[in-house]
Structure formats: C-alpha cells, structure tokens
Amino acid sequence: MRSPYMYIAVMAIVTYLIRVLPLTLIRKEITNKFVKSFLYYVPFATLAAMTFPAILNASDYMVSSLVGFIVALVLAIRNKSLLTVAASGCIAVFIVELIIQLM
C-alpha cells in the first residue's frame, strides 16, 4: 500500500498546475468573441451540472424533487426573491411527498 501523503502531494501539484498554467501561458487579453462567451458561461454550466443531480436526489421520491424544481424554476423566471423561490420549492416537495405517502 502506498503512502497517502504521496496521493495528497500529487493532488496538490495537479491542482496548483491547473490554476497556474493559464496565468503563465496566457499573458494577453482574450479578444476572440467565441472564447470570451465560452469562458463566460463555464461557471454557470459547472454549477448547473453539480446542482441538478443533487436536486433530483434530495428527497425520497424523484417525482417530488422534480415538482419542487419546476415550482422553483417558474418562480425564478418570474423574478421572485431567493427566499420565495427556495421556500416555495421546499413546500412543493413537502406537499407532494405527503400526497405520495397517503396513497
């Protein structure tokens, strides 16, 4: 069995290189519109890719999670506050799970 410190050192080096290489290799400002627009949407796509599966697996039933997501999405599109969106999504999940358990 190898030392866990070796694994930690390799992970630290890889993480460091991922963060430092773009800073050292790209010195000029990026002027290409396609690359700029691509880089603009990377954080949103990453957040969505990490959050959406967690939303669907947050409760016992995927149907209730999907209903809560849809309710939250509709309210967010209508520019409601974050508290209203989160609370309404949670309440929708709660109500759907109550209905499912009563059946």
Structural write-up:
With 103 residues, the chain is mainly α. Helices cover 81% and strands 0% of the residues. The protein is built from 4 helices and no strands. The chain has helices spanning 4-25, 33-56, 62-77, 82-102. Helix 3 packs antiparallel against helix 4 (82-102). The radius of gyration is 21 Å and the shape is flat. The model has no long low-confidence stretch (mean pLDDT 92).
Summed up:
The protein has 103 residues and is mainly alpha-helical.
Features:
mainly alpha; 4 helices
**Beta content:** under 5%
What is the rounded distance between the termini? Answer: 52 Å
Q: What's the SSE pattern?
A: HHHH
Low-confidence stretches: none
The chain-level mean pLDDT equals 92
- Specify the biggest β-sheet: none
As a percent range, the share of helical residues equals over 70%
Q: Count the beta strands.
A: 0
Helix count, DSSP H or I runs of 4 or more residues: 4
State the shape: flat
Rg over CA atoms: 21 Å
User: What structural class do helix, strand and pairing data support?
Assistant: mainly alpha
Task: Please write out the topology.
Blueprint lengths: L3 H22 L7 H24 L5 H16 L4 H21 L1
